[in-house]
Design brief:
Elements: H1 3-35, E1 42-45, E2 50-56, E3 60-66, E4 69-74, E5 78-82, H2 84-92, H3 109-112, H4 115-120, H5 131-140, H6 144-168
Antiparallel strand pairs: 1-2, 1-5, 2-3, 3-4
Length: about 170
Amino acid sequence: MSIVTLLPFIVLIGAMFLMTRSAKKKQQAAAQMRNEMQVGTGIRTIGGMYATVKEVHEDTVLLEVAPGVHAIYAKNAIGAVLADEEYNRILDGADPIHAGEPIVPDDASSLTGDTAGAEKADKIDLGKTAAPAAADEAKDAKPADEVKDTVKADADAAKDDKKSGDDAK
């Protein structure tokens, strides 16, 4: 066998090795994070619940999920150990991370530089205020029976055209 025929197998084995190595490193980092958990730190479970660590045991953790409400979780259910400022920010609902950033508008008026024209521009109203116009259109519309007859006539004509086309072959 030549090296050219073995090359795809070598590449495949190398890719599998790299993938398993990175996954193993992630698992080890998660296990280390769970083992270094301390009483009083804020955590997020894999289900997305935020809680405070009250007790750490060998395989389980006692969490305070609300003031006075405690629950026992497996250590494997801890998704992340959060820093104190991040945990407090999440619990308080404040978002100081994005406080200094400019607010991006919903329209492109700030990109064109014409902010005065944007205020005067006619805005499209997607509400139900256009009901009178729809009522006028409904008056001009054909009755349902007439529409059904037209559709049936079109279907019959298409069927006749198909039959005559089959006969011509």
